[in-house]
Amino acid sequence: MKTTSQARKEIDETVDIGNSQDVTKRRVSYFFDCEVGNYHYGQGHPMKPHRVRMTHSLVVGYDLYKKLEIFRPGLATADDMTRFHSDDYVNFLHTITPDNMGNYLRQLQRFNVGEDCPVFDGLFEFCAIYTSGSIGGASRLNSKKCDICINWAGGLHHAKKSEASGFCYVNDCVLGILELLKTHERVLYIDIDIHHGDGVEEAFYTTNRVMTLSFHKFGDYFPGTGDVRDTGYGEGKGYSINYPLRDGMNDATFVSIFKPILRAIMERYKPGAVVLQCGADSLTGDRLGCFNLSLKGHAACVAFVRSFNIPTLVLGGGGYTMRNVARCWTYETAVLLNQHRNVANKLPFNEYYEYFGPDYNLHITPTNMTNDNSDEYLRKVTQTLLKQLYSLEAVPGVQIQTGATSSMTPKAVVELESSKTRESEADPDERTPAIERVEDEREHYDTKNEIPSSAEMDVE
Length: 460
Ligand SMILES: [Zn+2]
Description:
It is a single chain. The protein has one domain: 3-Layer(aba) Sandwich (Arginase, Chain A), CATH 3.40.800.20. The chain has 14 helices and ten strands. The chain has helices at 4-15, 17-20, 50-61, 78-81, 87-95, 105-110, 123-142, 172-180, 198-203, 251-269, 295-306, 322-336, 375-390, 411-414, and strands at residues 28-31, 69-72, 148-151, 187-191, 210-217, 240-245, 273-277, 312-315, 421-425, 444-446. The chain is of the alpha/beta class. It has a ten-stranded mixed beta sheet, with helices on both faces. The protein is globular, with a radius of gyration of 21 Å. 50% of the residues are buried. The structure holds zinc ion. The site of zinc ion (ZN) has 7 residues, from loops.
């Protein structure tokens, strides 16, 4: 058993891991559309898109934006969304408004839209905005224009092919992964949101081209899936990894399970790209969460992923105590830039300063809540998962077959189709602190596209 100070030291070292052991600079791109903060799920709803704008304000306040390439993505279209989602569901999202919803009662029920996932003004545009950062980010990674791409507005991991779920309508994580699969044989999805990454797991449950790894509270908790015994099906058997947890996870225990599992995955699976969902509802004091992580514990996972130096799409996700979400994603932006040592605990003045009282500090303090995850329990689950990983064929021999997807088999993958690369490049000289000025209407489309068009693909 490690002492508290030993554990604290290890976390600090883990946050620093990308720096002391690896001096390679990472080119970091950042997708942000200030409009995202203008959408409201409705009064009293815990999901508040405003938190993404608060994050951006801190990223600017700490001068981190100067080290980033900031983009405002061109909007994702309904066509882009139907690479994963069903046509009738996307059509419905496009059509439904608070004014006409009375005429769509059956469909509201069928697509699970109404309560947790309400209809609100601009719903479709909201989905298009958060999705475009994930598809655009993946596309930018594919074209090797950056090493890390951040989209804090994304990470809506619960959405299903034909169903909204858990505040999520369009699953940008799945769409980002599909984009990455155009150039990478294997993609690893990592989810540190407190909730199980069910929508992403389900989309890729039958393929070995995507490995999903989720750490989540399990047992009488939304969405109810993510048992350690759920490991995938068919070709995908063994490629879904679930780490079920109890209340009160703290930094030391979280980092102590995250590192060996990820190390084993990197060794056995060797992904070509990573999608990291950084849901901040696993932090201490979250309105809906029950873990006890500080920013450092959460960010240690991000730093550890970064240390492998694999193209990585970093996404947001849950997080319902807004001020802490903004703190967390700002700090993680700094970690990804290897600038976290230059980020003072005293928050810079910013337009949402009043949210951060009474202390106005960056870092947050865990509570003294009990950690219900005993060392014995964690040791057992870790052993089970390492056994699962080591029983897999080392580096599955899937090959990208241009023009044919028959060997890939997952439902989502056969729906892969060529799509234009979208990303509106902000003029570097225009990378200014004012949120309004990040906008740039110019778009350019990548003409290079090594992926066959859907017509050439062998769709089952
Ligand atoms: Zn969540």
